[in-house]
Design goal:
Layout: H1 3-11, E1 16-22, H2 23-31, E2 35-36, H3 49-61, E3 68-72, E4 78-82, H4 84-94, H5 135-143, E5 145-151, H6 159-167, H7 176-187, H8 189-199, H9 202-208, H10 212-216, H11 219-231, H12 244-257, H13 263-280, E6 288-290, E7 295-297, H14 302-313, H15 316-320, H16 326-341, H17 343-348, H18 355-369
Parallel strand pairs: 2-4, 3-5
Antiparallel strand pairs: 1-5, 3-4, 6-7
Length: 372
């Protein structure tokens, strides 16, 4: 297909509109429940007081701010795809922003800015008039306009998520999984909550033993998702991929949209796998086994997770059929040590080997070795 034909074909899948709206109109839409800014995202997008105050300063001075992107749902409600923090800042300042439980968040207090140092201590509306915007300032504020770009409900279902991912990975400080989590909340909030519960499993967290920073960046959720995705695939499905992260995102969307995905069965495999590993090796489960020192050491290694966790998960029913005993513990430990001694694993686990070259070899290896 020629380039222009591809452009014409893809354009048919995207229906958009756009026009400027006053802040007062956006406030009304939010109050009426017709604009969904997904309060769950607040944990991922969090501006400091100075950033919030600079936005309010820009609006008061009439400085244009970037467009807001929304996606129209079948019920007509607008999902905010890009611009969540800008809208959240405005709604918080005005005193109408709600948290995940529907409770009002306390109105924000401004700090001084470069052009308007007198914003220090100001609220939208306060009994102390010296610390409040006056009536005229509030009216001018609400009449300022923001350009709104709308992806209409007639568009292909995947466009909203593609748009969100593109807008929020360029120049963003979010981790890959934080972006995925935002996609999941828009796509299937129940699935997001389910994945989150798996990633917080006590035995899972004990075995992966991640630093607090990685937990904050939701790397535990990425590992849980990687386990679910790779457990369902043939290893060669990832061979030669250009972007493994994008592949994981695509598979996540497929699973979340699949009404026949068996969560209960997959949850049992997940929890039983990491419980067994925790009982046997605990925080040493995915650390390097130093053959010369005969001990596990160092930090969590993703290659060992892929080989050991997924390999064991594929055999977990057989292990569960055996009554746990010291002999079983020794047997599993020896098998895990033998993975580290295997020449193929030795050649593939290092940092110089990318994931699409590694997984097709080490997942089958772990599956083969970790048979009871």
């Amino acid at each position: 297909m020629a380039l222009q034909d591809e452009i014409n074909e893809k354009k048919k899948e995207i229906s958009t509109d756009g026009y400027p709206m006053s802040i007062g109109e956006l406030i009304s839409l939010y109050k009426e429940g017709e604009l969904d800014i997904h309060p769950e995202f607040q944990r991922f997008f969090r501006w400091k007081e100075q950033q919030k105050s600079k936005l309010i300063e820009s609006i008061l001075l009439g400085i244009p701010i970037p467009s807001i992107f929304v996606s129209q749902r079948p019920d007509g409600i607008w999902d905010v795809v890009d611009g969540l923090q800008r809208l959240s800042t405005i709604f918080e300042f005005v005193g109408i922003l709600k948290d995940e439980s529907g409770n009002l968040i306390l109105p924000s207090r401004l700090v001084k800015t470069a052009y308007l140092p007198s914003l220090e201590g100001k609220y939208w509306e306060n009994e102390d008039l010296l610390n409040s915007l006056d009536t005229t300032q509030r009216l001018v504020f609400k009449r300022e306009k923001i350009d709104v770009k709308i992806v209409k409900k007639e568009s292909d279902d995947s466009i909203k998520y593609e748009l969100f991912q593109r807008l929020n990975t360029l120049g963003s400080k979010l981790s890959d999984q934080e972006v995925r989590n935002c996609l999941l909340v828009m796509l299937n909030k129940d699935f997001y909550l389910w994945l989150k519960s798996l990633s917080e499993d006590e035995h899972f967290l004990n075995t992966v033993s991640l630093a607090e920073r990685l937990i904050d960046e939701k790397y535990n959720m990425e590992l849980a998702l990687r386990f679910l995705v790779l457990s369902q695939l043939a290893p060669n499905d990832v061979k030669g991929l250009q972007d493994f992260g994008e592949f994981i995102t695509e598979k996540m969307v497929e699973i979340a949209k699949n009404p026949n995905y068996d969560r209960l069965s997959n949850e049992n495999v997940f929890r039983n796998t990491f419980k067994l590993l925790d009982d046997v090796l605990g925080e040493m489960s995915f650390k390097k086994f130093a053959l010369d020192k005969e001990r596990f050491e160092g930090k969590f290694l993703i290659a060992s997770f892929e080989s050991i966790a997924i390999g064991l998960g594929k055999n977990i029913e057989a292990w569960n059929a055996i009554q746990f005993s010291p002999e079983v513990q020794t047997n599993l430990t020896d098998k895990i040590k033998s993975i580290w001694a295997n020449p193929l694993f030795q050649a593939k686990y290092g940092s110089g080997v990318n994931v699409t070259s590694r997984v097709p070899h080490i997942v089958p290896l772990g599956t083969e070795i970790l048979v009871p």
